[in-house]
Amino acid sequence: MISLSVASGARSNLVPTSALYVLVFIAIFYLTPKFELPSDLQILGFTGCCIIVAVIAVMLSRSRAATFEIPVGVGAFIISIYCARIIYDLGKPALQWVNVNVEATYGLAVLSTALFSLSFFIGYLAARPKLKGVVGRLRVNEQEILAARRGSWLLFAIGLCAIAATLVIAGGPLAFISTRGSATAIESVAAIQYTMMLGVVAAVLRISLSFLPGNPGSSTDLRFGLLMAFPVVAITLAEGSRRYALPLLVGLCISWFIIRRGSIPVLKVALVAVLGVVLVLLPLESVREGGSDSGGSFASAVVRFGGDPAGAFEGLFSSQSTSMLPAFAMAIQDAESAGIDEGLGRYTLAETILQPIPQQIWPGKPESLRNELIEYRYGLSSSGCTSLCPTYGPVSTFYADYGLLGATIGGLLIGLFAAWWTKVCFRRGLFGVLAYAGTYWGFLYMWWSSVSALTIMVLFFGIPLLILAKLTKSSLDKDVPTAIT
Q: DSSP labels for 67-95?
């Protein structure tokens, strides 16, 4: 029997850091004179951000195990991306998304996002599962490990079929790499996109087996896991997409911390994340087609960003990668200009229940709000966006359906779902833990992309692992207390 630890214990050291964040928020909403938001919006924004910080601080101070709960990562994302972007936007002479002036609707975008964010935290806390310390009591038996290995091969085989189909349709590996536009169109085919995700699931499942203490086959599991990860990650990175590399990386990090540490060293992870952004993500973004270093080498971009961290972050917050708020403000204007009425639930359905249905099967399937707005302003082709491709964040979907009320209720529902999903996963042993680790990225990525990102991660990353858990009957031993109450 192999012990799987989920620990609780000492107080987190993030509480002092939270006080610093509060001071940052004061600067955002009270000390920035260049753009005067309505006073009530200033108060709402400041209070909301303080509540988010307080929630994170309280959660982290109660137990070490709470550090890997979903709201902790979401709160960090809101603080480091959304709030930092507000600082950047308010320091500009004019509020714009690219060349579109959004001053008239920026305040409404901030208000909607604040309501959505606070509702998310309230929803999660209302149904928050209690993680108990079960050090040395939660166990993984040999049957479960064997089932995990067999399941990883099955999922990997399905992922390979998607890769083979992609290469055949593209005309071979060289044609795939050299023709990025057609490659993007191929990868955007729903059936291929979803089955490729199963290849990532296989890699996370197999590599995570190597994290188990006392597993005699850990080195073999690690080698086979890396082998499973290579085809999907390599072929998509060659096409210019990070769609599968980031879920793989985040899923493995979360599973390692849960299995081996029982907590996440938040400040250390934050430091590594900053270095990763400066030395990896920003250089990769700059050497892509259309980037500031397009056509140059990755190594030279790393040297440039590493030598000028301030310039690197200036570039980060001036890029489309962090522009969800101004893009959402532009979306509000475009929806009015295009005559798009309230969706009354249509856009939410398109990105949740209807999301996995391929348009090849249902050509008349309702379009997502993002597709409608991009087509209105920039146009769409078979390979995706024809020029710019903004992301509006998850609040845009609910706002388009029911306005500010929709934004508030939408955040509440997502928070309730996050709490329910945590409880479901941690009651299902190793497979459940890995389902949680893999979908953790979806709960973060949603804030950059849309609700559909979370839907895809849950359906095609989390659900397959929970099905394997059900088929192998690999829940906790009956005489062992569950990890969740």
A: GGSHHHHHHHHIIIIIIHHHHHHHTSSS-
